[in-house]
Amino acid sequence: MKILAINPGSTSTKIAVFEDETPLLVRNIRHTVDELAAFPQVTDQFDFRKSLVLTELEKEGIPFQFDAIIGRGGLVKPIPGGVYEVNEAMRLDTLHAMRTHACNLGCLIAAELASMLPGCRAFIADPGVVDEMDEIPHITGSPLMPRITIWHALNQRAIARRYAREHDTRYENLNLVICHLGGGISIGAHDHGRAIDVNNALDGEGPFSPERAGTLPAGQLIDLCYSGRFTKDELKKRISGRAGLTAHLGTTDIPAIVASIENGDKKAELILNAMIYQVAKSIGAAAVALYGKVDAILLTGGIAHSDYVVSRLKERISFLAPVYVYPGEDELEALAQNALGALRGELPIAEYK
Fold first, then answer.
1. Beta pairing partners, 84
2. How far is CA 132 from CA 90, 94, 128, 186, 330, in A?
3. Which CATH superfamily is domain 2-129+331-351 in?
4. 295-318 pLDDT, tens digit each
5. What are the domain boundaries of the chain?
6. Which of 25, 24, 17 is nearest to 69 (CA)?
7. Which top-rank group of organisms is this from (predicted)?
8. What are 105-139's pLDDT values in tens digits?
């Protein structure tokens, strides 16, 4: 089986070609600010990014022949986890999605490219809007604002399955707390293969992160909204984009921040330790969602490469359960594995409605 995986991000389009489990090509096509500035809306980048994918395949001499093309899922309506075949309902919901992000292009490009090949199928898997929570976790103190989930579902599930394989068991047999440490930070309580509680890591819940504000004091936020100092769009960016570490320290570069700390920067030390503290508290809360019955805590994402962050997190959370670290993320491999499992009949293919 030949699989093409496509993962559009804010400043790059990552692609990979797999033959069964073997990667034949992995590429990270970076986009400059000037290139993307030419497109008023993210969806306007569709032809630009699609052409880059085709050009890269041609440049590497890879024939445009695939059994499946799988894209990163977009910010559509909440759905259970799993593999979904791209259909017209998904395409329409993606084109009119309330939240704008480059990931919305994943299913659109996959569907377009698959339509050019006879017998080729287009999929997405475990998009960021996966919601498997029961009623109670959705409820807040205001019926106007129920909790929603936007998280790193694809990578969290891939890491969970990897941990399960390494321990000769199945994801569906485990209770796990998984923390993805990236530009946004998501923390999920996984109960025997279902994410029963997870934060909105995009625009307003959980610990602050390199780019996100996390949970904020509601009263102060309302006052700021009516202060006249910012437009609505500017305030949105103060929650997601120009928030977290970048708002406090002017950078999201963890190694650079750690280097500043080692050179005596007390402010950098205070802010980074505050983020670590908030992450640890959220991991503790996820353990409560599992009644304290946690087989393991898994740390993943780019920041998991940082010994400074990981060591201090472990000091606070190791009493809960054994901690395992899986630095970085391999969402392309996760996408390809999901497509392969679907084609082989090992994973069910869900219908988006």
1. 124, 350
2. 19, 20, 12, 15, 23
3. ATPase, nucleotide binding domain (3.30.420.40)
4. 999 999 999 999 999 999 999 999
5. 2-129+331-351, 153-326
6. 17
7. Bacteria
8. 999 999 999 999 999 999 999 999 999 999 999 99
